[in-house]
Amino acid sequence: MYATQQDSGSIATSSRGNLGEITPLDWLPHPGYEFGSIVADPLNSKVSYAGGPASGIIKVTYPSGQWINVSPNVDGTAGLRKVGNQPMAFSQTNPRELLVGFQYLFSTIDGGMHWKKLSPDLGLPKGAKPPNSGRASRS
Amino acid sequence: MKDDDDEMAADDGDEGDDDDPDATTMRQQRPGAGGAIESFSASTVDPGIIWVGTNNAWSS
What we know:
heterodimer; A: 139 residues; mainly beta; four-stranded antiparallel sheet; 34% strand; B: 60 residues; alpha+beta; two-stranded antiparallel sheet; 1 helix; 2 strands; disordered N terminus
């Protein structure tokens, strides 16, 4: 189990302990950030992805704890924007597909080696009026 | 000197305050830079649809 902790960074723990309870011995540091999401690879429980500092997305591998930045934002010319609690999740229909929100919805199916934009830029300039999306109605 | 509580109160969870020595601190969205995706969720009835929420805001 993974979690972010404000002002303290990320943490990982087993969902059960060998001493009959979960103790501090079961906790591990995790190099994720204090905000955002941490998701476990559904096909490899030793791998997790987390939002990191400097707008990065990091891929973490246990037991070594080694992490690398796999974010599309490593290309500084991409001009990507994100919110503090950046949304990130694996697809429910493709367990290899990791989805991440910047001003675009991004997808990777190879662990962050390559990213694909699934949407246009959905972020409007500050103060810009969003287009009318129509009137909600009942049928 | 700040204790932990003071630190939390001081930055209120935001990054990039003057006391932060971490050069890799997350860049905050600059005013006027535009919105970004806050959340998304796959449709439960159509696997080809992903609903997206943004922080785009407008007031008259």
